[in-house]
Each structure stands twice: as C-alpha cells, then as structure tokens.
C-alpha cells in the first residue's frame, strides 16, 4: 500500500503496510514497564449478577475492566495539561496525527551521579534544524527497556536547556524512551516539561511529549513519516502508539 505524501516542499512515497511500532504493549502484571511507583496494570473480568466477563470461567464473552495510569504503565503521550492548572485533554490538544520525524540516538552523559542528555549533544546532532517531531533513542538500547521497573532508580533524563532548544527549533512532538524528560525526583520543578511547553508564559497547546517508547536497534537514525496515535481520553495523557514509516 504505497502512498505519495506532500511534506512541505517535498514529495515522499510511504509504504503504509510496513509500520514500525514504537509502543510497548500494556500488559498486566510485573512484566510490564513501570515507573514512578505506580501500581502494575490490572485486568479483571467484569461481574454483575450471574454474568462474568471471562469465557474460561463460564462467561459468554470476555469483558475486562482495566486499571492503569498512563504516566507510569507504558508508552503514553501527554499534553501541557500534565503540569498546568488548566485542563488540556489529549483529544483536544492533539488534532493532527501525521508528521515528519527525525530519529536520533544519544548516549546520556554521567554528570554528578545523573545520566543526562545534554544540550551540547543535541546541538551537535541537530545543528540548528529539526523536523516537527523528534524521537530520541538513548544508548545503550537493551530490550530490557520493555519491562524495566524504573521507580527509585534515577533513570536518565534530558537537560532542561534541551527542552528550550527544541522549542526554539519549533519541535512540536517529542518522543523518547525514558520514563520522563525530567529527573525522577527534582523536587517537583519539572523544568524540562515547563520549558518545552513554555508554561505558564505562553503555553504551546498543540505540542506533546511521548515517554516510555521503545525504538528497536534495527531502526536507523534518520527521517521518517510519523503517525502518532492516541485514545480519545478526557485526560492530560493517553496510552499511545507512535508508528514510523520509512521513505
């Protein structure tokens, strides 16, 4: 299924039958990726009267109730509503779903006990230019990221100056494989979030951050066509499914 798409001043050909899925499946139990001390996802068959939503327990069909928190239970996309007093639900803030995206790989630097994606690293790669969406893959890139338990481990994060720089380059959608763009425990500052969304000075309401993605090693750095899929939650964040297409 080949589509010809006009991206600004260039025309690209995309095979829509070959998506590259950057999302981590939402699974019940301890094998799922987890962060910020949020409990694991829980699936429970719905029960009412004599009905049970589990065919293996005698029900006519499977009807699971699912308990989760998008911010710590898997790949998710969030809006400025994550840090604002005002409510900015994902289904209103994200109203376009296709973008040109640049994928880069960075090995966070060890600085005073922290692993940080620094402004010098990002500037040396982007050189003052970037697509509307940026995907950051951190190195090393073990598949253990798919079921890592990050709570209390002080995982890598990006320098708040990086968030400002990306905003200045007009990057609207940032995707990365970390639990957060900010340090796990920064005293509630969330400086990178504030800088990227320019909140509260002049909030960028149509911009998003996607965290806890996973980018396989066989996906090379470069430019892609991105389809950013979310559920229409009336919430600042939603589980999401970023899909890349080569062109």
Reconstruct the topology from this structure:
Layout: E1 2-7, E2 10-15, E3 20-21, E4 42-45, E5 47-48, E6 51-52, E7 64-67, E8 76-78, H1 90-93, E9 98-106, E10 109-111, E11 114-117, H2 119-126, E12 133-138, E13 157-158, H3 160-168, E14 173-176, H4 191-197, E15 208-211, E16 222-230, E17 237-245
Parallel strand pairs: 9-12, 11-13, 12-14, 14-15
Antiparallel strand pairs: 1-2, 3-17, 4-7, 5-6, 8-15, 8-17, 9-16, 10-11, 16-17
Order of helices and strands: EEEEEEEEHEEEHEEHEHEEE
Poorly predicted segments: none
Overall body shape: globular
Distance between the termini: 13 Å
Radius of gyration: 19 Å
Mean pLDDT: 97
Strand order of the largest sheet: 8-15-14-12-9-16-17
Q: Helical content, roughly?
A: 10-25%
How much beta, percentage-wise? Answer: 25-35%
Discrete helix count? 4
Oligomer: single chain
Structural class given helices, strands, pairing? mainly beta
Largest sheet: 7 strands, mixed, barrel
Strand elements, count = 17
From the structure above, extract its key features.
single chain; about 250 residues; seven-stranded mixed β-barrel; 4 helices; 17 strands
């Amino acid at each position: 299924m080949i589509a010809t798409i006009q991206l600004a001043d260039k025309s690209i050909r995309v095979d829509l039958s070959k998506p590259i899925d950057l999302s981590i499946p939402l699974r019940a139990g301890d094998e799922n990726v987890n962060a910020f001390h949020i409990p694991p996802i829980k699936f429970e068959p719905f029960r009412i009267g004599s009905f049970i939503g589990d065919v293996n327990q005698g029900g006519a069909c499977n009807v699971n109730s699912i308990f989760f928190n998008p911010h710590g239970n898997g790949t998710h996309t969030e809006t400025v509503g994550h840090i604002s007093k005002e409510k900015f639900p994902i289904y209103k803030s994200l109203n376009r779903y296709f973008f040109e995206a640049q994928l880069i790989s960075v090995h966070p630097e060890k600085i005073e006990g922290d692993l940080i994606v620094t402004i010098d690293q990002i500037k040396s790669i982007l050189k003052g230019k970037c697509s509307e969406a940026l995907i950051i893959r951190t190195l090393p890139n073990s598949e253990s990221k798919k079921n890592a338990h990050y709570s209390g481990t002080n995982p890598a994060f990006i320098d708040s100056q990086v968030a400002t720089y990306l905003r200045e380059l007009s990057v609207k959608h940032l995707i990365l494989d970390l639990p957060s763009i900010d340090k796990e425990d920064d005293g509630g500052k969330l400086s990178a979030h504030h800088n990227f969304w320019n909140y509260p000075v002049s909030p960028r309401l149509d911009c998003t951050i996607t965290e806890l993605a996973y980018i396989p090693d066989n996906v090379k750095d470069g430019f892609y066509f991105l389809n950013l899929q979310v559920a229409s939650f009336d919430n600042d964040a939603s589980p999401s499914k970023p899909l890349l297409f080569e062109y």
